[in-house]
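During the second year of the project, the team shifted from modelling isolated chains to modelling whole assemblies. The rationale, set out in the original proposal, was that interfaces cannot be judged from single-chain predictions alone. As a representative example for this report, we include one of the complexes processed in the last quarter. Its constituent sequences, exactly as entered into the pipeline, are reproduced here:
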Amino acid sequence: MEHHQSKSFPISHVIGFVVSLVLTFGAAGIALKTNLSFKVIMWIIGSLAVIQAGMQLFMFMHLREGEDGKTNLVNMIYAVFMVIVIVVGSIWVLTSGHAAH
Amino acid sequence: MSAKVDTSLPLEYQTEQDRMNILGFWVFLGAEIVLFATLFGVYGVLYERYAGGPTHKDIFVIKDVMIQTVLLLTSSFTMGIAIFEMRRHNLKGLITWLVITLALGAGFLFMEINEFIHYAHEGATMQTSAFLSSLFVLLGTHGAHVTLGIGWATMVIIQLLKRGLTPTTARKTFIIGLYWHFLDVVWIFIFTFVYLKGLVA
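Output from the structure prediction step:
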């Protein structure tokens, strides 16, 4: 466990908040104000979203804290795996092959 | 289920029961992530099936989306500060930041309801097209979670006022905190893969 009681200023929260705002407006700027191709834009803003979500998990939700920290981490990695299977799998199956004809 | 209390830990982790409740809530969040994944999957498949109805660019208002995003992002931050104050055993600070969080959450909800009304006026309803059906189900499920979170957090605040900070009320507060951050995590992906994606294409 970290040294919670002694700190008087929530510095990691403030950093997390500022970085989240930068990532949010950065993604909006890249998506709306640049002339990059759709594919490039989606890869960039998708990556920014994943980084921001990770920051929420580690800096705000204290994912790895406590004696079950490792269990939480494995649980979230599995959840991410399921998201990829469900989202990418659905889109792939339903927009390629026979579905595309 | 022992009553052993480890006072070296933050209040919410002091008993075995409370630690198990927090672990269980993380498992629940894993299931919630899969629930939202199915809705994102449906939307990802259907997002260009306009059926002659309005498209993203016809209905999305980027300024309102940015306001919604900042409201929810800030509320996630203030929830973090609330938990920070809880760990300093500052009950007054905790409740103050919780109330600020809920005010921001209510602001978000107000914006989202107005957004839906605006869409309906544009002729974009759930029945219009597959794009709009999947959009409203995804946004609506998230909005319903925010609504539930506001009611839930209000009840936790009432308990804090009545019982003060105990291992039990601290654990309940920590868990609603996790839930609230999770709602912001889902919103990050809605913002990116629904709104920004729709306005790029």
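Chain A touches chain B through 49 residues (CB under 8 Å). Confidence is low (pLDDT under 50) at residues 1-5 of chain A.
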